[in-house]
Amino acid sequence: MRKMALNMTDDATHGSSSISHPTAKKPWALVADDDQSIRSLVKKLLQREGYEVDAVEDGVEAVEQIRRRRYTLVILDLTMPRLSGGGVIDTLVREFSSDLPRIVCMTAAGPSVVDRLPKGHIEAVITKPFDVQTIRDLVTLAPKSQEKR
Known about the structure:
alpha/beta, Rossmann fold, six-stranded parallel beta sheet, 5 helices
């Protein structure tokens, strides 16, 4: 698991978090963060990298989306209402243990939160504030193919 700590240098977009579902065969990513500006920024970055993106504001919504759609990449805030990012990961491991998407976590919390995460299932932890290039570097490494769950 990589840890990345950088400063945010790009302006966050303040667009809608509504979900669009074009018919093109692009990889899907899910962004779960209770901060609208971060959610919008990460969504926009992923779309620029060629992803179709769903964005939700808490862990319960993230789990519901993951049950409906196969994601190549899931980016989770660790501190969210109703269900934390760690809780989302625990649920994914229980329900999809052999077919997990790439998981990247974001947090403004200290190392104690990161230390409590389930080991072996998280590709990277990005500390907030972050540099947008960090997200770009991570998502360009993601496989661009889709498989059915």
